[in-house]
UniProtKB/TrEMBL annotation:
Belongs to the Glu/Leu/Phe/Val dehydrogenases family. The keyword Nucleotide-binding applies. The keyword Nucleotide-binding applies. This is Glutamate dehydrogenase. It comes from Candidatus Woesebacteria bacterium GW2011_GWC2_31_9. NAD(+) binds at residues 197, 228. The active site is at 113 (proton donor). Substrate binds at residues 77, 101, 359. GO terms for molecular function: glutamate dehydrogenase (NAD+) activity; nucleotide binding. SUPFAM superfamilies: Aminoacid dehydrogenase-like, N-terminal domain (SSF53223), NAD(P)-binding Rossmann-fold domains (SSF51735). Keywords: NAD, Nucleotide-binding, Oxidoreductase. Pfam families: ELFV_dehydrog, ELFV_dehydrog_N. The lineage of its organism: Bacteria, Candidatus Woeseibacteriota.
């Protein structure tokens, strides 16, 4: 797969693309330009080399980052990833997109992101704990429930949040669970957080189909990805009677034009380890990932990784619409082609915002020292995310623009309005 040259350049280009749409909203064009210039830079870039002594006595050092992009609408909010390919520009782009995502779904947060350049599979659990705790020690003065709220991202999880919480609270000498989201339930995590991104994606899909008056029983879906997002999205879509004809993981996928049983597949996946193995050990028919993307389905759901839909394969994609559940699965050139072919694409910052929405509910629960039931979490998620879709849909219809353009337009406008109200520009 081709990687974009630089995801932050991509992000800034997305910002530039909405400027013409904003011109009518602001009489003072100089002020608008000043706001856009400010939005092209993060507010704070925090960096530190972390030194780790491995269990074998060797010393290693790892570059870490926290980039706080914009907090005009509320405290910074964003995940932390541990990955060998982390770069400063990638974290900048992801922190910008978090600012957009929180504004789209209209929750009172800005955006941030953090990361360590490390391959966590090369560390044992004790080493990972020591590295995480050092990172938390570095971040402690810059985070907090009203300042910056980290969460898990690629290769981090509730355990990593628990280690960070321990260091933060020790140094502050008081409890502060609302500083982190995505925590284990035992330490103040929310019911429903694990499956929230997939569940939210199905709510968005249902809202889209309703707006187009499409009967969900008449459409066929192909899903790329069978991890947290792909599996839960598939599970809720399956429960809601959607026909999923193909689904894949990194090893490849399985296909059945009559519809797959996701519950059965999940069990087989757990038994055999990957979908390729499932197909070789059972009578499920195998499909390569590349071919899954090009199936003649109604809806394609990339839910695995970035840059799955590119200039190279876009003309072979036959889906009538696309729901981006992964972050950044479509390159900007492919996006242009979809636009000219009038294929609807529901963008990642809207489609996968269920995760950060339930993180927001976790924060609210922690601030109140109160626990919501799963039912309440799910109802509030449905209400919040369906409203976000409705807001975008209104802009799409009024301005006759794509869902991605409408999403960025609305989010950037909300951020700029907050910056103006605060007198930052
Ligand atoms: P995950 O690691 O749980 O799952 C990733 C899945 O993608 C796995 O099934 C893996 O086998 C598959 N995969 C990897 N490479 C592939 C390839 N080349 N072809 C096909 N499948 C491949 O990750 P996740 O949490 O499900 O995240 C998936 C995407 O969704 C990422 O882009 C992530 O940033 C985004 N996202 C996740 C959340 C969340 O709450 N987990 C929220 C918002 C966005």
């Amino acid at each position: 797969m081709l990687k974009p040259v630089n995801s932050f350049e991509n992000a800034k280009r997305q910002l530039d693309l909405v400027v013409p749409l904003l011109l009518n909203d602001y009489q003072d064009k100089k002020r608008l330009n000043r706001a856009i210039r400010l939005l092209k830079k993060p507010q704070n870039i925090l960096k530190k080399k972390l030194n780790l002594k491995l269990d074998n006595g060797k010393k290693r050092s790892y570059q870490s980052f926290r980039i706080q992009y914009n907090d005009a609408r509320g405290p910074f909010k964003g995940g932390i990833r541990f990955h060998q390919n982390v770069t400063e520009d990638e974290i900048k782009a992801l922190s910008f997109w978090m600012s957009i995502k929180c504004a789209v779904v209209n929750i009172p947060y800005g955006g941030s992101k953090g990361g360590i350049i490390v391959d966590p599979t090369k560390l044992n659990l004790r080493e990972l704990e020591r590295l995480t705790k050092q990172y938390a020690n570095f971040l402690t003065p810059y985070i907090g429930p009203w300042r910056d709220i980290p969460a898990p991202d690629v290769n981090t999880n509730g355990q990593v949040m628990a280690w960070m919480l321990e260091i933060f609270e020790k140094r502050k000498r008081h409890h502060s669970p609302a500083t982190f989201t995505g925590k284990p339930i035992e330490l103040g995590g929310s019911e429903g957080r694990e499956e929230a991104t997939g569940r939210g994606g199905v709510y968005i899909l249902q809202a889209y189909l309703k707006s187009k008056k499409i009967n969900h029983k008449k459409i066929k879906l192909a899903i790329q990805g069978f991890g947290n997002v792909g599996y839960w999205f598939a599970k809720f879509a399956f429960n809601a009677d959607f026909k999923i004809v193909a689904i894949s993981d990194v090893s490849g996928g399985v296909i059945n034009t009559a519809g797959l049983n996701i519950d059965e597949l999940k069990k087989l996946h757990a038994k055999f380890g990957c979908l390729k193995e499932v197909s070789s050990m059972t009578n499920y028919k195998f499909i390569e990932n590349k071919d899954l993307l090009e199936l003649p389905v109604d809806l394609l759901v990339p839910a695995a990784l970035e840059n799955a839909i590119t200039k190279e394969n876009i003309n072979k994609i036959k889906a009538k619409f696309i729901l981006e559940m992964a972050n950044g699965p479509t390159t900007s050139d492919a996006d242009e082609i979809l636009k000219s072919n009038k294929i609807d694409l529901i963008p990642d910052v809207l489609a996968n915002s269920g995760g950060v929405t339930v993180s927001y509910f976790e924060w609210i629960q922690n601030l109140h020292g109160y626990k919501w039931t799963k039912e309440r979490v799910n109802n509030e998620l449905k209400e919040t995310i369906t409203k976000a879709f409705g807001d975008i849909q209104e802009v799409v219809l009024e301005k006759k623009i794509t869902y991605r353009e409408a999403t960025f337009y609305l989010a950037v406008k909300r951020i700029i309005d907050a910056m103006i109200l605060r007198g930052r520009v």
